[in-house]
Sequence to fold (322 residues):
Amino acid sequence: TEFSMIRQIWWERFSLPTLLRTNKCNILLNVDAGTLCRFKPAVTMSRDMLSYEPGEMKRFGFSMARLRLVVLRYVQNSSLRNASVAVFLTKYAADMIQRSAGLIRNISYIPHGVGDAFRKKRIKYLNYDEKKSLQCLYISNALPYKHQWHVVDAIGQLRKEGFDIELTLVGGGEGYALKRLQTQITNTDPDGTFVHQYELVPQATLPDFLAAADIFVFASSCENMPNTLIEAMAMGLPIACSNRGPMPEVLEDGGTYFDPEDPKDIAVAVRSLILDSNKAEQLAQRAQHLSLQYSWSRCADDTFRLISKTAELQCQVGGTKG
Fold:
């Protein structure tokens, strides 16, 4: 309810700092920049790009969701500027957010990781055979900037060209984006023969979906840290990827790229993997190698090291404050 939200905001802004001082906390870790708490020292993580990516808010029209993003950008800018250290998951995110927030004096880059379950060694690489259906996979919930409908359109185009290819969508969704996706599926695959949908599934089952795929597609136009992308990289899948946001920073030269809002361009990227199995294998191996720099143990070590260092520096300067 609105009353509950007001109470939450009041508690975070005024009650939490007092509670932290009472319990003699040395430092606060904010895992979301959308915080109103001004306790110091504080390490604050930036994990949301939707308020900052040019053009993305327009997808929400004139709605409460868009108003919320405008307010959130103001809150995040203030939170990051007031943090003792601001943590960004990618350099792209840091550069883009500082265009709005201004120069942030203390920055650290600590990307998220990928679980050990995704480190399985793949022994199967894409090898197109007209007698075998190729399995294409996209893992993400349906949102205005995820563009699943364009991927469905692209796969439909490839099937018209004679490629025996199927698409699995994992992640569910809601609202306008899901309706647009369902309309595209109805138009492209009216018999329900080659587009397969799954709602949100347990994280533990995602490696099984990836292991069953021949190609991974990632068509988002707005990300801070594309976790499902690095999971596919770790599994050693050939990847056709959006050329927007931090995706080229993360995937580098380990995949083919496309404009996520152009179904023809998506089809070109996927087709290039199908027709050149040697290229697909080389890209998959490169992506798997690149994924080694993303681990949860490294993320945890770097985060706690930063927290410790920040707390020590604050003690040298002279105490904490709310």
